[in-house]
Amino acid sequence: MKKLFALASTIALCTATLASANDGLVAEIDNPNHWAIQTGDYKNQRYSTLDEINKDNVGDLQVAWTFSTGVLRGHEGSPLVIGDMMYLHTPFPNIVYALDLANEGRIKWKYEPKQDPDVIPVMCCDTVNRGVAYAEGKIFLHQADTTVVALNAETGEVEWSVVNGDPAKGETNTATVLPVKDKVIVGISGGEFGVRGSVTAYNIADGSLAWRAYSMGPDEDILVDPEKTTHLGKPVGADSGTNTWEGDQWMIGGGTTWGWYSADLEENLMYYGTGNPSTWNPAQRPGDNRWSMTIMARDIDTGVAKWFYQMTPHDEWDYDGINEMILTEQEIDGETRKLLTHFDRNGLAYTMDRVSGELLVAEKYDPVVNWTTGVDMDPSSDTYGRPAVVAQYSTEQNGEDVNSTGICPAALGTKDQQPAAYSPKTQLMYVPTNHVCMDYEPFRVSYAAGQPYVGATLAMYPAPDSHGGMGNFIAWDNIAGEIKWSLPEQFSVWSGALATAGDIVFYGTLEGYLKAVDAETGEELYRFRTPSGIIGNVMTYTHQGKQYIGILSGVGGWAGIGLAAGLTNPNDGLGAVGGYAALSDYTALGGQLTVFALPD
């Protein structure tokens, strides 16, 4: 460990002079006329100060122009806009287009990687990709086959590339990357194949490896200081990444990192969550399975962890913890604090002090959540920070080859990766949610590299005794820990939200509607049906002084995998096919960008 921290100190000293290396990107992010990062900003707020389009005139929106991506399957993420250029991506084969907005959207360049199609069956839950990133004149693409590519933003030429994983072992990628300071941060997918999750930092200049932090394993692998890295305020201690696993199971432990990343440049910390432990059969992996299902705060320069918080110890339901961390500055008990809010798959919304890792709020953000009665919030308790599991819905207690029924939420969570938005004006968070429950039957499974390592059969369906639909779009108070308003939807809301200074919030639906609602009341103000279901994230920008709203449509993702991949067995798609079978009555495959504006 002494060698590890001597190295970390050296790295920190060497990179100190590069702290402002991304001033250009920070300026682009701060420019409301551009959309320079998938998450809107480093805080993941997905908020725009643009207000030309507002609640008084949003009903007049019209389609300004469209662009076909030429690819079917699920279209997650959004375009980027830097100056006169728009950068657009697709699902596999991960084509990137550079469109010249000053020349009627002419294709300036196109990058089409040559990937082995054998990667497709290794990708869980559709061939999606959550978008490209920009920094220092480069466009960064993390391909499905885990190749990270830096493209010249002007020409599309490859400046460098590096392979981050091995699809033969089940390692793939669906996520975007985080360019921050002089590094680009990338994750890995493949928890359903027994992959050991990791986050890796590459140097923006040349793609060389800066650091890698695994989700579980020895201290030097997970980059912790046993005495200084904390969990709920207490040191994690030695061997925290192995001592809650049986034998060497941590080597195939899951905890993959395919979600979103945020950063606090003042604190020099980056934040993200880890996914489910492998396998889905909890009886095969006794213990808390640290550090799966964990919020992590790490030093940007060195990767060394400052604090962890494990939300779902010994997961029994596939409640990945990879959803976005939204960073805010808000007042609690008369004191302005730096907060982190996370809407977890497990149905609990957490508000934490993002500097110290103190747990402040943990409440259900869908009333139907039933697997737990809640989180122990007493710091003096032996079970502080742990959720109390309801025995009836415990797949571990019920046992292998027993079908546990009526568990809420389903494995895809009360919210999956579809990002929420935050408005500093209302101090509310706007959350696309799933309103879905499941039956879950675990069974014994053997590990083989590159083969599915799931060990459970699932069936999903709308939450019973409710509005009959499979989704809600809600406004959430992250300080009080309560829903302010909720809009029922027929299907899960799988689109990322956008809040603006125009007092409106945008989101898309699986049927294909772009909707705009009043940020204060939730009143619907506008809807337009695009050619395919929306699982993309709404973005906004200006060009030549005019505000535009952009959204990708192309049904797919986990919720739409049956339609996207032509699956009909109700248990396929890890249980989603049967639950969303009716989706084919409302939409069809597509791949299109639709851009909206007010009439001239």
Describe this structure in words.
By secondary structure, the protein is mainly beta. 7% of the residues lie in helices and 35% in strands. The strands form ten sheets. A six-stranded mixed β-sheet has the order 16-15-20-19-18-17, with no helix packed on it. The chain has a five-stranded mixed β-sheet with strand order 1-34-35-36-37, with no helix packed on it. A four-stranded antiparallel β-sheet has the order 2-40-39-38, with no helix packed on it. Strand 4 (85-89) and strand 5 (96-100) form a beta hairpin. The longest helix has 15 residues, at 2-16. The chain is globular and about 65 Å long. The termini are far apart. The model is unreliable at 1-19 (pLDDT under 50).
Terminal residue distance: 64 Å
Please give the number of β-strands.
40
The total of helices stands at: 6
Please tell me the overall pLDDT.
Answer: 95
- The main sheet orders its strands as 16-15-20-19-18-17
Which oligomerization state do the chains in this entry correspond to? single chain
> Approximately how much helix is present in the residues?
under 10%
Briefly note the structural class of the backbone.
mainly beta
| Beta-strand residue percentage | 25-35%
- The global form is globular
Radius of gyration: 22 Å
**Which blocks of ≥5 consecutive residues have pLDDT under 50?**
1-19
